[in-house]
């Protein structure tokens, strides 16, 4: 099985962190293809960043299909370009926020999300509504750390995340914590040990869900709105997308 794990930002060290977490959890016969776009933001912390990064995600999905990927994982908690990515491939495409919400709901009736910045917490709230998990989530909390601090000031960032997770445990009445950033992929065990609750991290959750879908022989439906986009002419920098997308 070949899983294409896409870091939608362009920071190589974060791609490496995500890849290592995916490989630790993947089955022995699963090959992890860790990729990132050639162009785009170094971190994703806004709707604007997500919009720019979505094109790169679609390009990496197409490249993964050409290399024989059986499924794709979008390793950013905003799930940028998720539905568009599902349109352009028959393979399953899993966003890490959606995967984490599903997994957390299976082990606890209530969870809280701990993310990086308050503004990205609002984006997570939108996704909870979109995916139908609002009634499972008690609160979305922000440690108020820039995403790249997870790489450049990791000890201080981890301390802030653990502090916020403990507040969630003590104040929110939850049974599990969801980590709200792909850059936290290597922190699960330390946080769980410090907080004493199950901690769900989206990259690893998405990898196991992708393996399950491939094992079940299930791919993205091509009936309805996730059918391949209708062929049409594109101009300018997107001219190469003209014609069939299948």
Automatic annotation (TrEMBL):
Give EC number(s), comma-separated. Answer: 5.1.99.5
GO molecular-function term, one example from the UniProt record = hydantoin racemase activity
Reactions catalysed, semicolon-separated, are: a D-5-monosubstituted hydantoin = a L-5-monosubstituted hydantoin; D-5-isobutylhydantoin = L-5-isobutylhydantoin; D-5-benzylhydantoin = L-5-benzylhydantoin
Looking at the UniProt entry, the stretches that span the membrane are none
EC class of this enzyme?
Answer: isomerase
PANTHER family assigned to the protein according to its UniProt record, in alphabetical order = PROTEIN DCG1
Per the record, the similarity remark reads:
Belongs to the HyuE racemase family.
Supply the name of the protein: Hydantoin racemase
Source organism (scientific name)? Halomonas caseinilytica
